[in-house]
Hints:
By secondary structure, the protein is mainly beta.
Amino acid sequence: MELARRIMPFWLSICFLFIHGVQGAEQGEIEMELIGNETYQCQYASFSGRFPNSRIPVRVFASVNHHSHSHHSHSSHVHDTVLVWVEDISTSRFKTCVVTGGQEFGADYSIHWFAFQGAQSGVQHGQARYGLFTTGTKCTRVVFAPAFSTVPYIQTTVQHGTVDKRKDAMDVWIESLSKTEFEVCLRESRTFDGPHSNLSVNWMAYEQFLPSPWKAKTFSKILFSKYEIPSAQENYALCKTINFTAPFYMPPKVLVTAAKFLNNTSSRITVEKGPLSCWAEEIERTFIEVCVKDYAGIDGRRDDLEVNYVAFGKNDI
Ligand SMILES: *[C@@H]1O[C@H](CO)[C@@H](O)[C@H](O)[C@H]1NC(C)=O
Ligand SMILES: *[C@@H]1O[C@H](CO)[C@@H](O)[C@H](O)[C@H]1NC(C)=O
Ligand SMILES: *[C@@H]1O[C@H](CO)[C@@H](O)[C@H](O)[C@H]1NC(C)=O
Ligand SMILES: *[C@@H]1O[C@H](CO)[C@@H](O)[C@H](O)[C@H]1NC(C)=O
Ligand SMILES: *[C@@H]1O[C@H](CO)[C@@H](O)[C@H](O)[C@H]1NC(C)=O
């Protein structure tokens, strides 16, 4: 009896060692600080433990959030496009890289990320792959199995199979999203800087509910109508501020993805394909500001588009 009492804590701690791993999903934030004229940076982030199965891929998603409350803040100035991707993913860590599009000097970004492994209830997810391509835009069609009963919410992130390939920085967006399928498109950051190979896109789609271990408090779509016109004050981006229905305890982690949807068959033929780019300009406890840039610029013909977002965190009580 006495002996049992003495060795019990030992056995408990052993058990704890064995079962300690990632439960459900993980989320986090990576701070990137680009100094002087740097336009490229990568950083590793670790999961809190290991995902259990080394043979099942860990899906990682990442989005760019421009730091509005940092000391380097550029007041109310809307930022340039930043391309983000993930690579070198294992069950315990992954790497995120950013390439900035504009010419601004020195900038802070925080990358919000989200990761899970294996089947997730109510969520379809996968990886769209791209063969070799040498220029411009490349799209891959994905069919949902089974189809959704309404047009789902969607998130995407580029994954590089080959590490340290800055020239494979890609813009990613969704074309022709419907209940049954979508196209996910990539566009090179500089024209003719190819060839590009070994690229894929992680995607996830969901309808009404997200698994409760995800701690996703809210998700929605923000509509940008085809009649909106970007302004110089917003650095020629289209931006919208959305209030959360309930305030968060701390600013949430947010993923964003831009999508064009397929309302009817005629639009499939007339519509031009991208590029579209979106990011979170500001994230606070009570609201987010999301911006998009599209191919139409200030004088082109624009289509209706949506930014899908999902916010992870705890609500205020
Ligand atoms: C970036 O800055 C470094 C020194 O700070 C300079 O040597 C280099 O030429 C600069 N590169 C470009 C592309 O301006
Ligand atoms: C493509 O990516 C895989 C890992 O995802 C890697 O093993 C392989 O070497 C890459 N191929 C090339 C040509 O870089
Ligand atoms: C969001 O909330 C602020 C302050 O509570 C309010 O002034 C603003 O009109 C709201 N915006 C929208 C789009 O509801
Ligand atoms: C097209 O579909 C989107 C989303 O499914 C919807 O928000 C939008 O109002 C629709 N537009 C028209 C013209 O029906
Ligand atoms: C749907 O098609 C009709 C014509 O067939 C067109 O007038 C309308 O603008 C289209 N709607 C969208 C959202 O593309």
